[in-house]
Every structure is written in C-alpha cells, then in structure tokens.
Amino acid sequence: MARGEKKSAKKEWYRLDNAAVVYSAIQKDTYSAVYRFSAVMDHEVDPAALQRAVDKIMPRFPGFRVRIKQGIFWYYSEFNDAPGPFVRPDISNPCQPIRFDQEDGWLVRFFYYHRRISIEVFHGISDGGGAMVVLRTLLAVYLREMGYKIPNTHGVLDVDQPPRPEELEDAYARYATVKARRFTTLRKAFPNTGTPEPFYTLNVTMGFCSVRQLKERAAAHGASITEYLTAVLLKVLVDRQHRARPVRELPVSLAIPVNLRSWFPSKTLRNFILTVRPCIDPSLGEYTFEEIISQVHHYLRLNITRQRMQAELAGNVKFAKNKLIQILPAALKNPVVSFGYYMAGVRPYSGTYTNPGPFQCPEEMKAHIRRMEVILGQATMPRVHCASISFGDLMEITFAGTQKEADTEREFFRFLVRDGVHVKVESNRSR
Prior knowledge:
The protein is α+β, with helices and mostly antiparallel strands. It has twelve helices and 17 strands. A hairpin with a 2-residue loop joins β6 and β7. The radius of gyration is 21 Å and the shape is globular. The two termini are 42 Å apart.
C-alpha cells in the first residue's frame, strides 16, 4: 500500500492461476520460486527517489499488491494492505525463498546497490513477461523522479491510469478450450546435481558477450540465439555426464519456458507460460554439436505451435479441475501437487534455460541503462539454472544454483569462447 493510502474496508481476493497453484503448494525453504531482474544504471541509485517510484507504481499493478493465503481447499491471493513494499540495500544471496507469513506477506521485493536496481518476484503472482512490464514502468517513473522526461511508450504503463481488467486475466483458463493432451510420463533425465552449499547460499555466475557475435555464430549453424545457447548447454551437460562414466547414461533435457502472449492475444500480467523439453539421448550414440543444434532447432520449431501449446495448457487446467483434486483439503493436496511437480517438472529435466529476449524501453530511457541482468532462484535440488537477457548489443547469461561445483558454467563459457564469442565473466563465488 502506498503511504497515506487508507486500508481497504473489504479485501479483494483473486483465484490463483494454474501455475500459481503449483508454485504456492511447493514453495519451501529448500526451493525458491523467485526470480530477479536488474537494471544497471548510468548513475548511483537514489534510494529515496526509488522508493517514491515504487509507491507510485504499485497501485497500477494490483496483481503484485497481494499476499497468498491458504484456504481449506486451495491457496488464494488477497489484497495486501500492509505498508510497503520498501526498497532495501541489496543482499549477497539473491532470490531468497518466499515465506508467506513473513515480510508482511509481500511477494515482490525491490533492492538497490550502487548503480543497480533489482526486482524479485514470486512466480506465483507473475512470470517474467509480467515482471518486466513492472520493472520497465518502475525505471521510467524513477527516472522521472530524477528529473528526466520519459514517455509512456514501448511497454511503459501510465501509472495515472487505472489498471485494465485484462491485466488480471487468468489466460490459462481463457484458452483451455480444446481437447487436453493425454498426460504422458516423461523419462528421468540426467539430474546434473552436485555438492550442496550451506543454507542459503546461491552461487551466481554471469557472462557478458556481444549479441552480434552470438547472432553470427548462431546463424552459422542455421539457428536462432536461443536455439544456439540451448544446444551449447545441452552439449556441455551431455559431456559432463559422459565424463562421470555412469553405468547407464540418461537423457539430457532442458525446460525451456515459452511466453504464450506471443501466440495468444492476452494482456495478462499474471503467469502465462508453458515449457518445452528439447532432449538428447546419449544411449542412442554420440552426438556432434552440429547434430545437437540441428535437433534443437527442429524440435523447438515443431513443438512451439499454437495447437500444441493450447492442448498442453488445456491439460494443465483439466488437472486442476479434477473432482478428486478439488475436494482434497489443502493439507492433503499440497503433497499430491508437490509429487506431481517432481514427476513432471523436476525428474524429467537436467535444468532450465530461459531467454525472455531483449529488454525493450523508450529511446529516452536507453541512455540511462548500462545493462540488464536476470537470475533464477534455487532449484529443488543442488543444480544450476541458466537465464539470459539482452540490452542493446550486450547479452547477459546467468548460471545460479546451490551446488559447490562450477563445471557446468565454466564449460559453457569456455565453449562460447572456443566458438569465437568473447565472454567477460563475473561471479559472487568466494573461490
């Protein structure tokens, strides 16, 4: 609640979307369904101006002004009338797990450190597409507080206008209008786990490289940047498993989130993503990098279609509407949802790679931003996740996880350098 605003006499509540139901049920201290976007500015951050900007934007985004509560049968979100959220100096271990009964129930956090402005969001209230709208608007309002003229264009929302109803839409339910795909059990994948760090230690390694160089190397292989980086990560994981000499090599696969707003007309700022699963099966024989990137290229183009994705999301909605699931009390439902998530969202994957694409903003903002960064919170097991974001010609690629070993990220960036992509690496590791 912005300061000076009166408390709501009757708290408005929202039914959680399908993704939010899962993230709320599985959230715990050993798993962080939290992600972070950061903008590194051209000047030291003014905390007071940043706080004023947060106060001004929050009424424009009611979906981010909520707390999550557990009902008898389901979790739900309600309007959060607590003071805040307040901007804070940054911390050494980002993306801390959300605890619904702490921090006044806020599910969004704002940090600053020298020239960096960061937003952390619990995945239960929004995906990266929605969070980037909030960050873009925050940066615009912050720069106005600093005396610059920034227009409401290129995705910056007008904070003086009321929220639009479609921004709170449950787009999953809206488009679950086709026959659901039959649920199939996916094979267990190479887990890519390592030695766990002490709680809560998130090792973060960032690589910075040229978008132009990445595009040239990807084009040389007949692929997009996302396809190229996906193939590099798969190649590194295939080789890592092979070096371990297991009795039987498992498939190596990645969870690649897809922003459904590109395929279905929705302005929702809530969750609206699905994942696809490019996979390499070493039991079929050895793969060259050219063969891996070709397989990734054709798999993604074949599986990221409107028809397939609509059938997939219809299946997810159908599961939530299952009568047995509906009548189970939340205390019994949570273990069922957690087990289902493990079987469908953890066991079949070796990790996650997400690329939300270039950060768009008005021309007037670009001169004040030096780079963008993204971090995914800790996985359900000690392994790394990968995420990337670009701004101008600078691509930032992050590996984050709670395992001590750093060979996945080391070999990934070495591969890029050997392939002709110059990379600068930064890390919060002490060794």
